[in-house]
Design a protein that fits this description.
There is one protein chain. By secondary structure, this protein is an alpha/beta fold. It folds into 2 domains: 170 residues, Quinone Oxidoreductase, Chain A, domain 1, CATH 3.90.180.10; 147 residues, 3-Layer(aba) Sandwich (Rossmann fold). The protein is built from 10 helices and 19 strands. A hairpin with an 8-residue loop joins strand 1 and strand 2. The relative contact order is 0.16. It binds beta-D-glucopyranose and zinc ion. Zinc ion (ZN) binds next to loops.
């Protein structure tokens, strides 16, 4: 069957190739699930893997099948699969457990080992192919009514985890009840974080460079949040106007913005960093000022990566609630379909060149 792969370490090596059809017989305990891939989303991670900034092949192979944002339909289940049946729409988690205590309790997104295993990213093949198999533990059911949001399940899980981590960490404050949040960046993680925070009733300011009206501003406003163009109102200016935030999510992909956000967080607040910055940028910050403000304000910085099953499930609930609270808003994120696996060059072109492509995804098959 067809797959889209790279040769890790070789820049711009994306190509189509033939790989063997997988079988549920390779999955232990009769818990295998065979999924026919319908759609796969791609993001900056896929672009940076193709730029050879990171990513590794599975041991014994010299290629890595790309794709970590999956959406498909179940075609076959093992004898002991209990909660998923043929015909269900599903997505799958990305990370697979290593050997740490965190991996052993199902929180593989929190592994303490340096080596992590991620389908389509590191040491495991991904989903940009015609079929995949996986263990029931990693396959998550998508309600039929959310079929139109297909590849948003994985990005939503990362946003849901980031915010869940903030709330979990803020139990240290006993009575923390955030009123105002800044979301930095209006890419998929920024927009989906905006959704999660709005569903919690928080006042949200979502920031991105260009002045509206445009697609991003209309999505933000459709979720009853405020869009702030930093070309007109930089974060420092917004902070002067409305005050510091109780919670900030950075999803800009810029480490210098991630650091500068430290100056806009209020007392007892939490800043969450979600960007994977594969480059080598260095930045200078007013470190004495930040240091004293952070100490005197008991502030907290949390890094958040990936997501486990629980975050997929809660993220899917967010999307379902989002669809009824803010009708016709979320599908607008899905801007840029590519036709078939054979469209992989166009897929990369959209990722690299097209600034208006909010979400690039491949229509692998229809069903
Ligand atoms: C993926 C995450 C992954 C991270 C680091 C992101 O693009 O969505 O699942 O953990 O990259 O590899
Ligand atoms: Zn991703």
């Amino acid at each position: 069957m067809k797959a889209i792969a790279v040769r890790p370490g070789t820049p711009n090596s994306v190509h189509e190739r033939d790989i063997p059809m997988p079988s549920i017989g390779t999955i232990p305990d009769g818990k295998g699930i065979l999924v026919k891939v319908l759609k796969v989303g791609v993001d900056a991670t896929d672009r940076e893997i193709n730029d050879a900034l990171y990513g590794n092949s599975p041991p014994g192979d010299d290629y890595l099948v790309l794709g970590h944002e999956s959406f498909g339909i179940v075609k076959e289940v093992g004898a002991n699969v209990r909660n998923i049946k043929v015909g269900d729409y599903v997505t799958a988690t990305v990370r697979r457990p290593g050997g740490s205590i965190y991996d052993k309790i199902g929180t593989y997104d929190m592994t303490s080992e340096e080596t992590y295993y991620e389908r389509g990213i590191n040491l495991l093949h991904g989903y940009l192919t015609e079929y995949f198999v996986d263990h029931e533990d990693y396959v998550v059911r998508v309600p039929k009514g959310l079929k139109n949001l297909h590849v948003l399940m994985e990005p939503m899980s990362c946003a849901a985890k980031a915010i869940q981590q903030a709330f979990e960490a803020q139990r240290r404050m006993k009575v923390w009840n955030p009123k105002r949040a800044f979301v930095l960046g209006a890419g998929q993680i920024g927009l989906l974080s905006t959704l999660n925070l709005r569903l919690r009733g928080i006042e949200v300011f979502t920031l991105a460079r260009a002045a509206g009206p445009h697609l991003k501003s209309s999505i933000v406003e459709g979720m009853e949040a405020t869009y702030v163009p930093t070309s007109q109102t930089p974060l420092s200016e917004l902070t002067k106007q409305v005050g510091k935030a109780d919670l900030i999510i950075d999803a800009t992909g810029s480490s210098s913005i991630a650091f500068s956000a430290m100056e806009s967080l209020g007392h007892n607040g939490v800043l969450v960093w979600t960007s994977i910055t594969g480059g080598k940028v260095t930045t200078s910050v007013p470190s004495d000022k930040i240091n004293i403000e952070w100490v005197l304000g008991n502030k907290l910085l949390v890094g958040s990566v990936n997501a486990n099953r629980e975050h997929f499930e809660s993220g899917i609930r967010d999307l379902a609630l989002g669809e009824v609270m803010f009708p016709n808003v979320l599908p607008k994120i899905l801007t840029s379909p590519v036709d078939g696996l054979g469209g992989y060059k166009e897929m990369m072109r959209l990722l690299v060149e097209d600034n208006s492509a909010l979400k690039v995804y491949v229509n692998v098959a229809n069903e």
